[in-house]
Structures are given as C-alpha cells and as structure tokens.
RNA sequence: GGAGAGGUGCUGGAGUGGUCGAACAGGGCUGCCUGCUAAGCAGUUAUACUGGCAAAACCGGUAUCGGGGGUUCGAAUCCCCCCCUCUCCGCCA
C-alpha cells in the first residue's frame, strides 16, 4: 500500500511509475474519493466539536439543577446529522481503500523498464551447465524409475499437482530443508522460526496477498484461515502492529514451511512433474530493516540465497525483474534461475524482493529511530530456496548414464553420507 | 465444547455515565542541586487524521481505554456481538 499523502503530493511521479508497470490503476478515482472524504471528515469533525461543547454545557446546567430539555433536543439533532455524515464517510473510505489496495508498489529507479519477462536483465551467472554424453532424462522419468517419486499415488490421495516422495526422495527433501536452514542460521546469521502454516486474512492483507489475489489462495471453509502461499506471510506478520527499536534492526529470519497455492489461471502450464505444485516446501528468508539499508540488504539477501545453489553446485543466473514482471508488493526483485537440462533453460528457483514500506504500511510495522520518531521500516524476503525445485534440479543436473543420481557433496552429511541415489 | 476471570498509555495499575487523554507509581527526557555515585527538587513525557502555513516550529479541532455495533444530550464506564489471554471441567495428538 502506498502512502495516500505521498500519492497526493507526487501524483505525476506516481502516474509515471505505475505506467512503467503496465495495467490500469484507479489513481484519479482515488484522488476524487480522497478529496470528497476530506470535506466530509471536516464537516463531521465540526459537528462533533459542537456536540462536545453543548454536552459539556448540559452537564454543567444539570449539576446546577436547571432544566436542559431544549438543549438536549438540539444535541440530538446534531447527533443525527453526525450519524448520517459518518455513514457517508464510511462509504467514501471503502471506495478510497479499495482504490488504494489495488495499486501496486512503485518500482525503484534501478528496475529495468519493460512489459514482460523478455525485458528482465541478467545480472550475473554462476557455474556451467553439465554436459552429458547421453540423452539426459527429465526429473519425472528419473524420479519414477528410481522409485523415489510416485505421482499416480499422489493423484489418488489428493489430485493433480501433488506429489509423493519415497525412500531417498523423501530423505533428500528433508536433507535439503535441514541443509538450507543450517546454512542460513549458522553461516548467514538468520534466526530460525517455525510459524503457523495457516494465517488469517489480516496477515494476508499485510503482505499484499489480499484482497487482490484471493483466487491464488486455499481458504479453509467456514473460517478466516488460509493455507499460507509462502512463509513470507506468517514471518512478515510476526511484528504486525509493533514498533521495534532502531537498535534491534536489521532483524533476519529464516523459516521452513510448506507452501500452498491454488495455481488458478496456470492451467496447462508446467503440468508435468514437480515444477508447479499445489503444495511445495520452501525455506524462506525475511528481513526487517531501516529504510536507508534496504537496498544493501536486498543484495546480501540475494547472495545468501545464491550461496545455497553454489554449495550444491547448481548452475544458475540472477535476473533483475523488469517493471512489468514484478510482483504486486515489490519495489525491486531479483529472481534466481537454476539450469534445467531437460528444458535446456533456466527456471525460477528463488525470488528476492525489497518491498520498502509497502508491506510495513499495510501490516503497520514501524520502528522508533534514535531521535524518537516512529516510521515504517522496510521488509524484504526471498526464497532461500525453493526445496521442490532444488530437488528436481539436483536430479536433472546430477544424473548418470545408468539413471542413478550423484548426491551433491554438501548434502551428503544430511543423508547419512550417501553419495549416490540408485534404483530402490 | 462447558463454567469463570480478565484485556486501560512505555510498564504496573486506578477509574461504574459528564469537569477523563485518562489518578497514582515506575521508567524516559529536560533543568536545578551535587567532589563522584546514589538520592533529592521542578518540569515534561501517546498516536493517527485534520485546519491555519509554501514548509517547519507552533496553535486549534476530531478520534483513540482489545475490535465492531447499540443506549444516551453525553460512554473507558451501561447493553449486545466478536477476538484474544488466563483458570477449572470435558475432549484430544
């Protein structure tokens, strides 16, 4: 959510930056509603002032034993008018908020301008694609033949876009979770948290998932609970409504959670395999930082996520998303894309974003600066990294001619020293 | 799920219809005092929106005592609904 006052005072800039994102946003409607709202507020405040004054007089007269029925009748009228003004105000507020809530964050000046992913900018690349002297299989064929992946049974249990891992497949998934958490806590200094896997609508509003993206979420019927689409939601909301001290910043958290996404609107996309699932595991990184530090923190957060891929020896590149390809709440996003031999291209495995104060304003997360002033802090997060996609990337990149898969060295201590996954 | 207790400012904690943005204490800040420390004395100490202003300072207004609604001329205080915390019972991994 943007600051209403900022929009009002920088309308041209806001218009320009939103144009870079593409899409239509109700800026003019917002301004009109805001002006109307203001005039109604002014009137209702004036009426309240009158009521307060008159009521005080009545109190005094009554204590002196005077009759006050005439004054009371008058105040009653005032109250009636206030009530109608308030109804008007509420309607305007709703209109104003629905505009405000539908406007995305403004892209940072350093974000490349463009309408779709073709305008994303490659920042750097690490490692090299493995070369095979045999036709490489994709992770589905590998996983099925190794007996570590069972999609038919998963479909029976739940449906399409679910998976069942078995034996070393399940073990490797668990190993990846532990490996990533260890790296982020021990090497990168993040505090590990294990949050609820469901969150209420207030929390989802705070991160910007609601109200606009309700269709992407699974909601638990007859409750206000949603399955979290990412750990970003519960972890960012840890400090919802709080005021932190400047000295405690930055605060850095890492969390493992499963993630649940309806994937509405992605019918026919990535239907094969584990790339796009209704449920997947992820280790997330979340930071609460001072505004002046947030872009440096985005760089280091991205490096922290990259470190995982480097330790696993997976070839990847870092993309700066362009204005048209960024998520709703983000001011700047780097995607990490890992090499997938079966597709002969890079696929997203992590997304690292600086939200500036966009989420902090929605979730009301502030900090007290050294001069005692309260202001919104900046939030960031990034996948550190997606477990499911790492799992399949390892299968594809480390496959052998005989269909077995070499376990990356960094992962072996987490798999009882196992060096190779063979047919089970 | 049943019964009960409670949710007030940075903290503790008063306050059962008007003079309450809220006693009192603690903490914080400013000044005085002081060889140093401790103590003492005086003052000060919320947030949001909004009017005056180009802006800040400042002055004024409105709102805020878990959230929402109601009663009333007037609500922290009365009534209703909801949320959260605690205790006991039931159920349960």
Textual characterization of the structure:
The protein has 424 residues and is of the alpha+beta class. It folds into two domains: 4-101, Helix Hairpins (Orthogonal Bundle); 117-421, BirA Bifunctional Protein, domain 2 (2-Layer Sandwich). It is built from twelve helices and 15 strands. An eight-stranded mixed sheet has the order 1-8-9-10-13-7-6-2. The chain has a three-stranded mixed sheet with strand order 5-11-12, with no helix packed on it. The chain is elongated. The structure holds one RNA strand of 93 nucleotides.
Name a few traits of the molecule:
alpha+beta, single chain, eight-stranded mixed beta sheet, Helix Hairpins, BirA Bifunctional Protein, domain 2, 424 residues, 12 helices, RNA-binding, 15 strands
Can you tell me the overall shape?
A: elongated
**Gap between N and C termini:** 51 Å
Q: How large is the count of helical segments?
A: 12
Evaluate the radius of gyration. Answer: 27 Å
Strand order of the largest sheet: 1-8-9-10-13-7-6-2
Secondary structure layout:
Layout: H1 4-9, H2 11-21, H3 27-63, H4 69-101, E1 121-126, H5 139-146, H6 151-157, H7 167-187, E2 191-193, E3 198-200, H8 201-207, E4 225-227, H9 232-236, E5 243-245, E6 251-260, E7 279-289, H10 294-311, E8 316-320, E9 332-340, E10 345-354, H11 358-363, E11 366-368, E12 374-376, E13 378-386, H12 387-397, E14 405-406, E15 420-421
Parallel strand pairs: 2-6, 5-11
Antiparallel strand pairs: 1-8, 3-4, 6-7, 7-13, 8-9, 9-10, 10-13, 11-12, 14-15
Helix pairs in contact: 3-4, 5-12, 7-12
The protein binds one RNA strand of 93 nucleotides through residues 38, 41-42, 44-46, 48-49, 51-52, 54-60, 62-63, 68-69, 71-76, 78-79, 372, 374.
